[in-house]
Write a structure and sequence with these properties.
Layout (H helix, E strand, L loop, with lengths): L5 H17 L8 H9 L13 H12 L4 H4 L1 H20 L4 H12 L2 H8 L3 H20 L6 H13 L7 H13 L9 H22 L3 H10 L12 H8 L5 H13 L7 H17 L10 H16 L4 H23 L13 H4 L1 H4 L4 H13 L3 H4 L3 E4 L2 H10 L8 E3 L3 H4 L11 E4 L3 H4 L3 E9 L14 E8 L3 H4 L8
Parallel strand pairs: 1-2, 1-3
Antiparallel strand pairs: 3-5, 4-5
Helix pairs in contact: 1-5, 1-6, 2-3, 2-22, 5-6, 5-7, 5-8, 5-16, 6-16, 7-17, 8-9, 9-11, 10-15, 14-15, 14-16, 20-22
Length: about 500
C-alpha cells in the first residue's frame, strides 16, 4: 500500500479552511443557523426535525463566543477539511498512490456541495463527515483490518445518527451490498453485532425522545418528500443534480470511480460501495429525497476513480492530459467558489443568477433588516397594543431572526408554529395586546383574529428576491379564542 501523502493533503485542508474562514463573516446568518441558536437554548435529546448534535454544537460555540458569526462557522470549516483528508485516505485504501490521493482530495475540496456545507453550520456538514468516515472505516475493514474496527464504525454511525437520521441509509445499503457481492466473511465476527449495539446505544436517547413524542421526524420526512423544503426538487432531477454537486467538468472522475467499483478486479473487495450507491439512488428516487442526499457517496466515488485517472495521465500525451485535468480543477475552484461562497458584494447579488443556482445564498441575506422592519411596525402601535404584544412568525428563520436581533430593538421573543418552535409556545395566557404577524397569508390569520391589517413590508435593502422579500407584516387584533385553543392549529412540520 502506498504511503499517505500527509503534507500535501494537510496543505489542501489548510487552504480550504483559510478560504472558508476568509468569507465566513460575509452576508449574514443562514436561517438554519438562527434556528440552531434558539434550539441551543432549549437543549433536549431530540427535536421534531433533527437530533440534538448540531444544536449542541451551536450551544457550545455561543457559550464561548456569543453573537459571533465567524466563530459559529469555524467548526463547519474544520468539518469540511476533515472530509477532504478522509477522501485522500480513502483513495489510499482503494489502492491509490500519492498522486491519486491528492487528486481525490482536490476534487472534493473544490466541490460545490462541500463549499456550501463548509460555509455555514448545518446538519449536512456533519452528515457528510459521518458518511465519509463510515466509508473509510468500512474500506479498512474490507482490506482486512482488525475486526475490532467494527466498534469504531458503530461509534461513528451512532454519533452520525445523533446529528441526522439519514446517516442510517449508508450502513444499511453497504450491508445489502456486502450480502449481494461480498466479501461476506467480514460479517462473521462477534465485533459486527457488538458494533451495531454501540450504534444503538449512542442513538437510544434520541430514539426514546422520538417515540415519546410520536415520531415527528416521520411526519417531517413525508412533508419534505412532498416538496415542503426550500431545497426540495422534483425527484426526477435527482440524477442530473449529481453532475453539478462536485463540478460538471470533474464528474468524469467520480463516474469513472463508479464504473471501476463494478468492473475493476483490483477493487473487487470494495464492490459493495458500488451497489450501495445504486441502491441509495433508487431509494431516494422512490422516497423523493433531496438532490444532495447522495453527496456522501462522492468521497468514495472520487477515491475509486482517482487511481484510474492518474493512470490515464501517465500514458502518452502526458502534458496535454495534465493540462486538461489542471484546467478542470481550476475551472471548478473558480466557478464553485463564485457560486457557492459569498464573494459577490451583497448589493450586487440581485444582478447575478447566484441565488437561482444556490438557494442557500439568499437565505443568508436580510435578517437584521427583517427584524428592523418588524420593530418599525411595533413602534407604530399605541401603548395599549404593546402591553402583552406577541410576535408571530411563519417559519423558524423569521422567528430566529427576531430572537437574534430583536432584543437590541426592544422586541419580545417570537413565537412560531414551525417545527421545534411550536414546542416552545404557546404565548402566555395573559398576552392580551396586539399580535404582529409575518410570514402568513391574510386569509390564514383571519381564521384566528377578527382584525388583520397591513402594517409594513419586509425589504432586505439590496433588492434581492429571497423568501422573505416583500412579505407583509400584519397587525392582528381581536383574537377569536385563547392561545391554548389556537396553538394546535398553527403547528407546521416541514
Amino acid at each position: 500500500m502506498a504511503a499517505v501523502a500527509w503534507r500535501p493533503l494537510l496543505a489542501i485542508c489548510a487552504a480550504l479552511i483559510a478560504l472558508l474562514l476568509a468569507v465566513s463573516g460575509r452576508y449574514g446568518y443562514h436561517r438554519d443557523e438562527l434556528y440552531f441558536l434558539q434550539a441551543a437554548r432549549h437543549l433536549v435529546w431530540g427535536y421534531p426535525d433533527l437530533p440534538p448534535l448540531t444544536p449542541a454544537v451551536a450551544w457550545l460555540v455561543s457559550g464561548i463566543a456569543p453573537e459571533s458569526l465567524v466563530a459559529l462557522r469555524i467548526i463547519p470549516a474544520l468539518v469540511a477539511a476533515a472530509v477532504v483528508l478522509l477522501t485522500g485516505l480513502l483513495a489510499r485504501e482503494l489502492g491509490g498512490d500519492r498522486a491519486a490521493q491528492l487528486l481525490a482530495a482536490s476534487c472534493m475540496a473544490m466541490s460545490a456541495v462541500l463549499l456550501i456545507v463548509g460555509h455555514t453550520l448545518s446538519t449536512t456538514a456533519f452528515d457528510l463527515l459521518a458518511w465519509t468516515a463510515i466509508s473509510w472505516t468500512v474500506a479498512r475493514i474490507l482490506r482486512g483490518a482488525d475486526p475490532r474496527w467494527w466498534l469504531a464504525l458503530g461509534g461513528i454511525v451512532g454519533l452520525g445518527l445523533l446529528n441526522k437520521s439519514l446517516v442510517a441509509a449508508l450502513p444499511i445499503a453497504l450491508l445489502v451490498g456486502l450480502l449481494i457481492t461480498g466479501p461476506r466473511v467480514v460479517l462473521r465476527t462477534k465485533w459486527f453485532p457488538i458494533g451495531i449495539g454501540v450504534a444503538l446505544l449512542l442513538v437510544a436517547p434520541n430514539l426514546w425522545w422520538q417515540a415519546v413524542n410520536g415520531w415527528p421526524q416521520l411526519t417531517l420526512s413525508a412533508a419534505i418528500a412532498g416538496g415542503s423544503s426550500g431545497t426540495s426538487e422534483s425527484r426526477w432531477l435527482l440524477v442530473p443534480f449529481q453532475f453539478v454537486l462536485v463540478s460538471p467538468v470533474l464528474a468524469p472522475v467520480w463516474v469513472c470511480g463508479l464504473v471501476q467499483l463494478f468492473r475493476s478486479t483490483a477493487l473487487r473487495p470494495f464492490r459493495a460501495f458500488g451497489w450501495a450507491c445504486a441502491l441509495l439512488l433508487v431509494a431516494f428516487l422512490v422516497a423523493g429525497g433531496k438532490p444532495y442526499y447522495l453527496a456522501g457517496m462522492f468521497p468514495v466515488l472520487l477515491a475509486a476513480g482517482a487511481p484510474a485517472v492518474v493512470g490515464w495521465l501517465r500514458r502518452r500525451g502526458v502534458v496535454a492530459r495534465r493540462v486538461i485535468v489542471a484546467t478542470a480543477l481550476t475551472f471548478s475552484l473558480a466557478t464553485n467558489s463564485l457560486l457557492m461562497l459569498p464573494l459577490v458584494p451583497v448589493d450586487e447579488l440581485h444582478e447575478t443568477p447566484i441565488v437561482d443556482l444556490n438557494y442557500d445564498a439568499g437565505e443568508t441575506v436580510g435578517w437584521p433588516e427583517f427584524a428592523s422592519a418588524v420593530a418599525g411596525v411595533v413602534d407604530t402601535l399605541p401603548p395599549a397594543d404593546r402591553d402583552g404584544l406577541v410576535i408571530l412568525a411563519g417559519n423558524y428563520g423569521e422567528a430566529g431572526a427576531i430572537d437574534r436581533f430583536g432584543p437590541a430593538l426592544g422586541l419580545p421573543s417570537a413565537f412560531s408554529g414551525h417545527n421545534a418552535y411550536w414546542d416552545w409556545g404557546p404565548p402566555p395566557k395573559h398576552s392580551a395586546g396586539a399580535v404582529v404577524a409575518v410570514g402568513f397569508p391574510r386569509n390564514r390569520l383571519l381564521q384566528d383574529f377578527g382584525s388583520v391589517e397591513p402594517g409594513g413590508v419586509i425589504d432586505n435593502g439590496v433588492d434581492l428576491d429571497n423568501e422573505e422579500q416583500g412579505a407583509t407584516i400584519w397587525m392582528c387584533r381581536d383574537r377569536r379564542a385563547p392561545w391554548s385553543e389556537l396553538w394546535p392549529g398553527l403547528r407546521r412540520l416541514g
